[in-house]
């Protein structure tokens, strides 16, 4: 994996890619990548996003911050790797598998009855009026609905459709209960339902279809 000189973004070097279709690569999931403090690193990045979202720096402080963030980005550019070997998304010991782009969640149950997780939308997940952005709620449902369907079909699934009904405001900074489960399994089709609760209050619910991928299907 190298960085594209034009964009500075990581680009895949596919000659040695371990990917064989679906979301996963032909390699073991490890909890070592990024080291024992990788979870702390992810949390500091989330904190950076939270603080940046609500910051109103003076022009002088903006200048200073640009230099500091550029230095941090330069350090990260030096350690780019492809998605299959990146700790973000494969560290199953960390909230949301160490994936900093997902709302952080912790799973308490996962099996034939579905998945139950505590999800906390961060300040940077703001939609407006101190409530979570609906798109971030859908992201959480997609990931945990995908997990429920994957457990049911014992394989990799992909979202065909996903409908979220927003029943009441979803608060930030509050551990919420998300439950996703397969209501009906019909061959490769897993019809998934889900709920998101703040205590007894229903914030949103899910109606989705996930399709089990065929071997090698991209
Ligand atoms: C643990 C980690 C969890 C992570 C979860 C993250 C999940 C994601 O975000 S996935 C990303 C978003 N989704 C995508 O990009 C998917 C893009 N679409 C595709 O790849 C394909 O259309 C795919 C795989 C969904 C289905 O294609 P394909 O495998 O060819 O199946 P296909 O033969 O068309 O359909 C299979 C069945 O599903 C039905 N179906 C497919 N799409 C739909 C749909 N949108 N609505 C209703 N039915 C559908 C078909 O009618 C067919 O039914 P039947 O077998 O009864 O005739």
TrEMBL record:
SUPFAM superfamilies: Thioesterase/thiol ester dehydrase-isomerase. Signal peptide: none annotated. InterPro entries: HotDog_dom_sf, THEM4/THEM5_acyl-CoA_thioest, Thioestr_dom. It is an enzyme of class 3 (hydrolase). Residues 16-35 have a biased composition (Basic and acidic residues). Its main location: membrane. It catalyses: (9Z)-octadecenoyl-CoA + H2O = (9Z)-octadecenoate + CoA + H(+); octanoyl-CoA + H2O = octanoate + CoA + H(+); hexadecanoyl-CoA + H2O = hexadecanoate + CoA + H(+); decanoyl-CoA + H2O = decanoate + CoA + H(+). GO terms for biological process: fatty acid metabolic process. It is a peripheral membrane protein. GO terms for molecular function: hydrolase activity. Keywords: Apoptosis, Cell membrane, Cell projection, Cytoplasm, Fatty acid metabolism, Hydrolase, Lipid metabolism, Membrane, Transit peptide. Residues 132-201 form the Thioesterase domain. It is found in: Cell projection, Ruffle membrane; Cytoplasm; Membrane. Its EC number is 3.1.2.2. Pfam families: 4HBT. One of its GO terms (cellular component) is cytoplasm. Residues 1-37 are annotated as: Disordered. The keyword Iron-sulfur does not apply. Belongs to the THEM4/THEM5 thioesterase family. This is Acyl-coenzyme A thioesterase THEM4.
